[in-house]
Amino acid sequence: MGLAADDEYGLEEGVELPKAQVFYSQYEYVVGYYGVERFVETQRQDGHTQRFGHPQTVYVTDYSSVDLELTTDGYPTADSGPAWTNGEDAWFVHGSDARTPSGETPIPFSQRDDATAFADAHGGTVLAWDDLLDERFEIDDASVVRDRVEGQHQDADERVDSARELRERPVSIVVGDDTETIQEAIEQAPENTTIVIPEGEYEETLEIERPLTLRGDGNVTVRGDGTGSVITTTADRTAVVGLAVTGSGSQGSQRGGEAELPGTENETGDWDETFERNYASGDAGIAVHTANQSLIEDVTVDSSVTGVLLRRSGESVVRNVTVHSPADWSDGHAGILAFRTPGVIEHTTVYDGRDAVYSHHSHGLVVRDNELEGNRLGIHLMHTSDALLGNNQLREQSNTGIYIMTGPERNAIVNNDIRDTEQALSPGGSDSYVAENVLEGNNVGLQISATNSIYERNVIAGNEVGADVQVLLPTNQVLENDFVENERHATASSGPLRVWTDDGSGNYWQGAVGFGDGETIDRAYSPTDPVDQRLHRVDGTPTLAQAPALEALAGLEGTVPGMRTGSIVDLAPTCEPNNPELLERTAWQDRAWPCDSAA
Amino acid sequence: MEHESAQPASEQSPSTSHLLGTVIGRELRTVVRTRTFYLLTAALAAVVVGITWIGGGYAAGYLPTAVDLLTPLELLVPIVAVAFGYRAILADEQRGELDVLETYPISPRELVLGVYAGRAAGLVAAIAVPMVLAAVAIAVTDTDVLAIYATHTGADSPLLFARFFVLTVLFGLVVLAIALAISSLVSGTRSALGMSIVALVALLFGFDLAIVYGLTEGLIADDSLLYSLAMSPLSAYRGLVLETTVAVASGTGPQVASPIVSLFGFAAWTVGSLAVAIWSVGR
């Protein structure tokens, strides 16, 4: 753990990042860490020993075994694959110029002389293992993401405000008065002015190459000829406001990576260039290529493939856009497609598409306040880190509401409302923050598919399976969520014991028995236990669960957590729901009864 | 049965109640004379009062004390009950008294019921002493509660504790009947002890674990769990206490237990065990 797949692909040849692999007493697999600092910080976490047991042996990359140099970024490179050495006997250069994509990293050597020589050349001090364990490292973990959410919203507000200023450009041309066609107006209008399009239907395919604002006045429809994208812009600060678009070509994403793309940056040499040529070459209602800080607002697209396509158009804003997808979802690609475009997508509505919002490599993308209905995937992130997905309403996606793939880092998924979907929320990757979401009436509510992440204050109600653990590494914090009226509150198929209690805070589990002191219940709850899992729905289980035989067994298992596979336990279940306001939005508020109080 | 047919002139024999009274009196004298029973009562009292004290229940009230005492009593009452009963009939047999009694105009039913009643009186005392002590401790230390004889459910009151007491006594009597059955089936002290331990393990752990297994494997359907629980005396007792004493406050959620079915379970175990004992003595 500790490195996004995207960063891994992006590394230059020869880069050999320092790694640690750890053998634990109660965890059957070897756990690998990118950067020794990742292990140092992780082993300090609450509950780490409880889940993994004690580290028995730690191996670290041995740079004494290779010819070590640093790139300009500070990444260590080696002439060959470095060997491993026992961490406890190694020497570490701490505070040098060496970096990983995640930040500062100590460089391990088996030979002290090599460490000293490295420190002389690149700065830092030489530390033994025990001293290194006492050091603190700044790692952008999920708590950093949590702290970031508000600021990211504010940044997005500013970007939106800034983009919306494009609406205020002075009017230079009124189509129909000054020119016959919109395209003529685009050719003639001075830069940074507005072209007004009066009410009517225009059969045109538009290409914008200079910074202009197109603004519909009344009921305006631009109808393409059924080939290519209807409106294509390659100019920074383009604005398309207040019109309907229809009639694009039906060419979907292509194969082979041969397609020429509009705009600049056709040959980037990036690792995902082939993807880019394939995915960003499909036809769209509005195609925005290498046009930074653009605005698409108050637009309706009757889509044949993709509604709005954004490629390498950072800081662009898509706002109040409605996309009607092709009748057969398999003909379509995305409602809104963001390729290497960390923009803002807000207040949009996408119906019945393949992916309502699809993002590739758009680090820092903000997707908020959207309504996505009847799509296959609601929001689909690939290779996208640091994104904020907030306040989205997702209904009846046939596959997944929010699906984050390819192991990105530091995504925030906050305050979304996902219902009636096959699986509601699958936040892959790591160091992500999943909070205050309402997941109701889904087949599977929350997939615990991101590691080192915080899942807190979500309401998970009325699902077949509330939460399903998919990751093997038990490194998540799961707390203050409310599980109400799910057929199964939570499941885990394999892997070691997951402790869903953090710093004394657990979750609300409808049906959990035991007696409360007003806040927490004195009896642990295990949603994977055959009796506990039935507590909220089967008559008699409250009696059976409190049998001395079961209490004795639970106590025994509690002392050797590593022995239980596929288990989840909450050591401090809460007496009452933690998020009554969110719960009020579901149909199950009345079914969230408090625990018995003996006091 | 044989000896009854040997005594056809039953109108000349003493009345059943007189016979029963004689047997009960004899059993009571045995109980009073047996120091082990005092020791058991004292030990139970020490545990109950100790838990009341340590758990802070005496200050918190009757209901918290009942909650604290439930699991310990689940474990200890069967042990005490078995101690009271596991040799009751065996001892008669070992001393040859059964043979003597067979010459008397007394039926196996009268004998077993008499022994049961006599031992039951002792067991009730052994359960009552600790629980009354605990109740007194709560009463004297918690003056607030004493004033509130609330009749509505959910409130803490001595009535809830009294209910708890009655259910505990009933539970003890069920296990005593089982112990009597064991006592009538075995032939020696050692086998009596062995059988008793097996029965205790089954009672305290076996039945409940079997129910969990059945539930996990789908042998017990979710909607028949209430009935399965009533078949385990321990779970029946726990269910009765939770449903009628502790969990009266929460009205939502699944039913904790079915009191009627649980009481039926109690009755079935008691009647069944005594029937086994009567049959065994009459052999």
TrEMBL record, chain A:
Boundaries of every Periplasmic copper-binding protein NosD beta helix domain copy: 340-511
Keyword annotations of the record: Repeat
Entry-linked InterPro entries: N2O_reductase_NosL (IPR008719), NosD_dom (IPR007742), PbH1 (IPR006626), Pectin_lyas_fold (IPR012334), Pectin_lyase_fold/virulence (IPR011050), SCF-Subunits/Alg-Epimerases (IPR051550)
Renumbered residue ranges of the record's region Disordered: 246-271
Protein name per Swiss-Prot or TrEMBL: NosL family protein
Species in which this protein is naturally found: Natronococcus amylolyticus DSM 10524
Source taxonomy: Archaea, Methanobacteriati, Methanobacteriota, Stenosarchaea group, Halobacteria
TrEMBL record, chain B:
Protein's UniProt keywords contain Cell wall biogenesis/degradation: no
Record keywords: Membrane, Transmembrane, Transmembrane helix
Highest taxon, organism lineage: Archaea
Membrane spanning stretches: 36-63, 69-90, 111-140, 160-181, 193-215, 260-281
Any single GO CC term annotated in Swiss-Prot or TrEMBL for this entry: plasma membrane
Keyword Transmembrane appears in the UniProt entry: yes
Molecular function GO labels: ABC-type transporter activity
Protein name, per record: Copper ABC transporter permease
